[in-house]
């Protein structure tokens, strides 16, 4: 099989769930956001928006509102998370990008997924770890969560399709080797 720098970057990227306190520089964050905006998107309408947060207090407040929404859930597992003192949906990453879009575009989720993958790969190429964070996707319409993300600048007509945690991987938590399922693809 062929290889090159791009392929190596794709294959070596892993989800990072433990971060050091080192912040992602503004310059690197802008590079990652720009790569997201270069992603393919339906009819190139660019209806998406990326809200990047580097403020630790705001991230903690966001997590608190998400936990508040979980606590109201009928799902016991979510209730446990909502009532947990330690649960942090973004793994204490120093930066988080909220990726949102206008849900009236039926491809809104696909656009966001393309942007998120571009951000993951760009971050990895810069030595920055990342992980998809889904919890805001299911809670963004909770009134308290909505009011909070509106205050952060997430457009009011948008749904959240995913978030990108960003930071430097904590070496104390090495990532496991990735094994691929066989039979995922074939050529006719
Ligand atoms: C749509 C989607 C949602 C995900 N949500 C979460 C999440 O909320 N929290 C998390 O830790 N990982 C989440 N992940 C990461 C996956 O668990 C991860 O990509 C998968 O286990 C493969 O591992 P890798 O990314 O290291 O290759 C999500 C991934 C995708 C594509």
Low-confidence stretches are none
| Approximate strand percentage | 5-15%
CATH top level of one domain is Alpha Beta
User: Any idea what the CATH architecture of one domain is?
Assistant: 3-Layer(aba) Sandwich
Q: Give the strand order of the largest sheet, numbering strands 1, 2, ... along the chain.
A: 1-2-4-3
Total of DSSP H or I helical runs spanning 4+ residues:
7
Indicate the overall shape.
globular
Distance between the termini: 18 Å
CATH topology descriptor of one domain = NADH Oxidase
The hetero molecules present are: flavin mononucleotide
Radius of gyration: 17 Å
Overall mean pLDDT stands at 98
Going by CATH, the homologous superfamily of one domain would be: NADH Oxidase
Structural class: alpha+beta
Helix percent band: 40-55%
Task: Give the beta-strand count.
Answer: 4
Largest sheet: 4 strands, antiparallel
Q: What's the helix-strand series?
A: HHEHHEHEHHE
GO molecular function: oxidoreductase activity, acting on other nitrogenous compounds as donors, with NAD or NADP as acceptor
Protein name: Nitroreductase
Keywords: NAD
Pfam families: Nitroreductase (PF00881)
